[in-house]
Amino acid sequence: MPEVWLRTNRRALTTMVVPPALLLAGSLAGLIWSVATHQSWFISAMCVLFMVMLLWLIAGLTSAMFQPRVAYQAGELLIYLEFGKATRVPIDIVEVFFLGQGPSELPKIKGREPETQNVIIRLAESATEWKHRDVKLAIGLWCEGYITIRGSWCEPITPEIMRRLNHRLAEIQRERKTARQAQEAAS
User: Fold this and answer.
1) Mutual orientation of helices 10-36 and 41-65 as an angle, nearest 10°?
2) Is 106 in contact with 114 (CB distance < 8 Å)?
3) pTM above 0.85, yes or no
4) SS3 129
């Protein structure tokens, strides 16, 4: 089971579940009405089809609520910049987490794009195969060995969270270094 380091923005995803849930309730009411009034089977079938699609959407959003943005498991940092899919990055090439600021990729407010605080992960320059990945732009960016996780899609970013991320990274890297040294000494 992965150790969660940075959670997703559950408030935003909960808000996104409300409209499909209301449509689902309306579709259910439509289905009940069509059956009770003996309407055409086509109306009932359309209500059922619409309800299945809405349930699929709600299940996906609910699943995303419990998916972290960053987690750690067995020597790899799991970075979720796509729904349902983690990119596994060797922890040994992760150098530091730091706070950044940039566009939120949310709709404009009064003609201006809102900004958000971001978590930026710097990878080792020597890890050239990890320089770039295609990710969901609304959630983050992965370019030139820097991974940007947009703050609008994760839990509120505080100085305490940044300290915790870097502290845990250093702790794991020390543990791994000690284990490698012990293994080399035993050989």
Assistant:
1) 160
2) yes
3) no
4) helix
CA 110 – CA 46 distance, rounded (Å)? 39
Kindly state the tokens that stand for 40: 């055409």
Question: Rounded to 5 degrees, what are φ and ψ at 56?
Answer: -60, -45
Interacting residues of 129 by C-beta distance below 8 A, sequence separation 6+: none
Distance CA 71, CA 2 (A): 6
Q: Which H or E run contains 101?
A: strand 94-103
Three-state SS at 96: strand
Amino acid residing at 40: S
Question: Is the separation of the CB atoms in 112 and 104 below 8 Å?
Answer: no
Beta bridge partners of 143: 146
Size of the chain, expressed as the number of residues it contains: 187
120 - beta bridge partners? 98, 148
Torsion of CA 84, 90, 94, 97, to 10 degrees: 20
> Tokens in use for 105?
């990729």
53: tokens are: 């699609």
Which residues are bridge partners to 150 per DSSP?
A: 118
Instruction: List, for residues 89-124, the tens digit of each pLDDT value.
Output: 999 999 999 998 876 666 666 777 767 889 999 999
